[in-house]
Amino acid sequence: MSTRGRVGSWGRWVKRGLVGVVGFTLLAVAVIGFAHTKHGRSLLALMRGAPGCPVGMDAKLSPEELEQVRGKVLASVRGDERALVRPALGFVLDATTRADVERWAQEKGVRCEPAKRGAALRCLDVPVSALAAVDAGVEKAETRVPSHPVDGLFFGFDGHGRLVSLDASRDHLSAAEAAQLVEEVREDLAAQAGPPALERGVPGAEYLQGGALRQIASEFRFSDYRAQVSATNLGQKVVVREQYQSIPN
């Protein structure tokens, strides 16, 4: 099959998969059981904000193919207005390069490894001090200093090596810490980028720790930017994710 045909086929598959996510893609990312179904794997493999498919299906696509698929997927969640600012943990979407991230990681002693056939970098155990020291010329905004270290930081790049997506995950927090962090990120995004388009769950630790798969989440949709923050109770632990994506024109 040609590259064009393969990407078109994957794009159509993703659109069909998105219809079954009850209009809120954060839930699909969070529900681990769904991720292990036929439909869930294909969806996660192509969501550029996610840190990769758990079974490696996205590894079959080149950086150029991933970029084409990314555009198709994000077109379905594009908002009407541009974001006032596009926060991304101090890095700058569409401007920070792979070389910039590699230099930052080396200077701060952060361990990173290539992923997605070179289209991404996966960094592990990122301390607060490393994120607080990011100096990437944030777009007219003050960078929020993270209050907790990041267990996994996933950088996605386009075919030119520019940062287009950033995913931070933490799975070492208590329900109270997770709920507080989500609220902090939500308030920061609302103040800088604009109001959220979608919200899920009830803010606070009491709701979050009330049962497995309970989730507190907010999603911000703009014409040039998408951000998501969520805390999900997976039974044995709570996972917090921050996702930042540039939406191509």
UniProtKB/TrEMBL annotation:
Organism: Chondromyces apiculatus DSM 436
Protein name listed in UniProt: Uncharacterized protein
Lineage: superkingdom: Bacteria
Record key words, sorted: Membrane, Transmembrane, Transmembrane helix
Transmembrane segments: 17-37
